Amino acid sequence: MKFWSAISVCVGSALFSCAAYADAPMTQQQGEAILNELREIHQLLARQAAPAAPGTAAPARTLSVKAPAKHVLGKANAPITLVAFTDFQCPYCARFEATTFPELKKKYIDTGKMRYVLRDVPLDFHPFAINAAQSVRCAGDQSKYWEMKDLVFKNQSRIDTAALASYAQDLGLDAGQYQKCMADNKYLPEINADNQYAHSVGISGTPSFVVGRVVDGMVQGRLIVGAQGLSVFEHAIEEMLAKP
Questions:
Q1: 38 and 11 Cβ atoms separated by less than 8 Å
Q2: Which of 59, 109, 119, 151 could form a disulfide with 105 if both were Cys (CB 3.0 to 4.6 A apart)?
């Protein structure tokens, strides 16, 4: 029963994401991508629901990823780094931002135990994801990156161009500078590079996270997939903090 309830939640969230942008034209390729994602969710939940063999435990997947110097929240010398691969139109990402992230920030980022790094993975079937990512980065030019990030996720049902411009106005950004940044697609190459890098290390769904320590410029640690609850992150972080 829990298994099918989980599937219903995932499918419902995906369909909600589509409905929220029903006025945007959807290509056959985008439709197929959505169906593929739902199939992957079904397969993932089926594997998670399958009983483990007696005396065995599924090993945690480890990964090593780069953590850019940009878009970092927290102390530079924090012992743990959490790299988040996100999509601004992804309902699961918005759920993480609304429920889990505030607690992680209070417990680990604000106390100097962890840095938080954001990387963009705009999915092909989310028509406003790239523009939203550009908007957040353009706001960053005026020292409002994290504030714009929060506004976009909180208002995820309205992230068309006009809505994004209104959020920039709400933050008191210089309108001319913001509009030029958006019109020039200033950060599109960086966003595309983030997306390509994520796929190169095997990350194709959002949100995905890597939590670990920085070794030779790379964050080496545990991969966490999906908008998991606080306890999942706490367990991984505390385990990393306990290691010398």
A1: yes
A2: 109
Do 224 and 80 touch, CB atoms closer than 8 A? no
Residue the block writes with tokens 């929240």: 73
Q: Is residue 57 situated within a structural domain?
A: no
Sheet arrangement for strand 62-66: 62-66, 218-225, 208-215, 80-86, 114-120, 72-73
pTM of the model: 0.77
Domain count, the chain: 2
Residues near 36 by Cβ (< 8 Å), separated by ≥ 6?
A: none
How far apart are alpha carbons 149 and 35 in whole angstroms? 28
Instruction: Decide if 114 contacts 78 (C-beta within 8 A).
Output: yes
pLDDT in tens, 18-65: 444 444 455 555 555 556 556 555 544 444 444 444 443 445 688 999
What is the chain's alpha carbon radius of gyration, rounded to the nearest angstrom?
18
- Chain position carrying tokens 């290390």: 201
CA atoms within 13 A on the CB side of 74: 23
